[in-house]
């Protein structure tokens, strides 16, 4: 695709502290467990929205989901090993720090993703395994390999990879996909841009050094902040629509409105400060709150379906 | 939710979504205008512009399809045998 020119920025002379790390710790690091914890919330909650799964099914999907996402993350670390070395927040990862060889990392990633595919197909159903594998391929090839370094739309389209978990959870319970499942997919899809751009606004130097054309570097901060606002408006409206056709009731509607209102308030704060440049604190708040927002929104879905409407 | 209220709710949300999506597309165009002069060749410029537009318009098309099926699920008789309704009435604990 394009050869986007990024503003150059000098690498700050920051060297993160070195610590003793075991192989087990490195293997866990390769799976990016903090990120997976949110992915698992967005996998398991839809299972309880779609129906009443057995605890064994929940267990298999949790294990399979962790291994598949972990495999994708490990392959991502293999493919991004060159830029991980120049970004402050990633230079302590197993490959750039020299603790693991690239070949071992990709072997580990492919191995656990293969195990996940086989396990989900055998113990849950083939559609679940297929969707999980599709998420893996999307993340590795569409996002990491193609879009991440070539387009400011990288996390918009690439965000679809993170939106696969609800489809996986839904399919595990119903064996099919329908309107409710696609709503959950799109909620995560439209949540992704404001979430990641809030981070990108504060990590422009890192992304610039690595040559990753994140929106603030390519389109500029003002344009990115304006898009964050409208993506958030769209997201909040989207989260309320399932109430219209009876997927969720009043409990969810109130939770979605309150949680979405808080997110919108945070993004508006960033928007108001877009000209002054004093949006650093507000955008960090949006980044952190959006994580909580997504988790609580999915919990509200389950509570609404199983406790009260 | 009562149907008239649900209908009103639907149209308000749909309006907000369409306006937001339109502004996003306009903003995307502005963003592309900024980076267009930096492309190395005419061919590269044209190809990347087309791709960026696909990336921008694709989700918008998906949203319109979603709104159509949402409307159909709200008024199932209007879309007989669409297969949407059973999932919407999914089991509860």
Give a verbal description of the structure.
Chain A folds into two domains: 21-177, Tetracycline Repressor, domain 2, CATH 1.10.357; 182-309, Four Helix Bundle (Hemerythrin (Met), subunit A), CATH 1.20.120. Chain A has helices at residues 23-30, 33-50, 55-79, 81-84, 102-123, 126-147, 154-162, 164-174, 179-202, 204-210, 215-218, 221-240, 250-272, 280-306. The longest helix of chain A is centred in the last third of the chain and has 27 residues, at 280-306. In chain A, helix 2 packs parallel to helix 8 and helix 3 (55-79) runs antiparallel to helix 5. The radius of gyration of chain A is 20 Å and the shape is flat. Chain A is mainly α and 309 residues long. By secondary structure, chain B is an all-alpha fold. The longest helix of chain B is centred in the N-terminal third of the chain and has 33 residues, at 3-35. The radius of gyration of chain B is 19 Å and the shape is elongated. Chain B starts with a helix and ends in a 5-residue tail after the last helix. Chains A and B meet through helix 2, helix 9 and helix 12 of A and helix 1, helix 2 and helix 3 of B.
């Amino acid at each position: 695709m394009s050869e986007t020119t990024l503003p150059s920025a000098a690498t700050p002379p920051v060297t993160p502290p070195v610590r003793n790390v075991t192989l087990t710790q490195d293997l866990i690091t390769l799976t990016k467990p903090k990120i997976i914890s949110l992915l698992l919330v967005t996998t398991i909650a839809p299972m309880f929205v779609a129906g009443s799964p057995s605890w064994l099914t929940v267990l298999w999907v949790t294990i399979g989901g962790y291994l598949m996402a972990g495999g994708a993350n490990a392959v991502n670390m293999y493919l991004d090993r060159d830029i991980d070395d120049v970004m402050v927040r990633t230079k302590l990862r197993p490959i750039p720090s020299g603790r693991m060889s690239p070949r071992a990392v990709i072997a580990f990633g492919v191995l656990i993703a293969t195990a996940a595919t086989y396990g989900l197909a055998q113990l849950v159903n083939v559609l679940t395994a297929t969707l999980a594998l599709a998420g893996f391929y999307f993340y590795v090839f569409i996002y990491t390999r193609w879009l991440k370094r070539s387009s400011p739309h990288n996390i918009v389209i690439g965000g679809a990879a993170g939106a696969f978990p609800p489809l996986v959870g839904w399919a595990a319970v119903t064996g099919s996909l329908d309107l409710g499942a696609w709503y959950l997919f799109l909620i995560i899809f439209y949540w992704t841009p404001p979430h990641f751009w809030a981070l990108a606004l504060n990590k422009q130097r890192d992304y610039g050094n690595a040559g990753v054309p994140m929106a603030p570097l390519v389109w500029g901060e003002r344009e990115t902040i304006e898009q964050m606002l409208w993506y958030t408006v769209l997201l909040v409206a989207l989260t309320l629509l399932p109430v219209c056709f009876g997927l969720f009731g009043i409990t969810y509607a109130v939770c979605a409105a309150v949680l979405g209102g808080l997110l919108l308030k945070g993004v508006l704060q960033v928007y108001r400060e877009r000209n002054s440049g004093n949006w650093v604190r507000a955008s960090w708040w949006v980044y952190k709150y959006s994580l909580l927002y997504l988790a609580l929104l999915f919990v509200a879905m389950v509570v609404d379906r199983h406790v009260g409407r | 939710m009562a149907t008239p209220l649900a209908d009103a709710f639907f149209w308000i949300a749909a309006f907000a979504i369409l306006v937001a999506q339109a502004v996003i597309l306009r903003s995307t165009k502005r963003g592309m205008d900024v980076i267009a002069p930096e492309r190395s060749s005419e061919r590269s410029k044209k190809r990347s512009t087309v791709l960026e537009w696909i990336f921008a318009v694709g989700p918008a098309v998906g949203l319109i399809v979603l709104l159509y099926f949402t409307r159909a699920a709200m008024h199932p008789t209007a879309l007989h045998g669409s297969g949407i309704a059973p999932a919407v009435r999914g089991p509860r604990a």
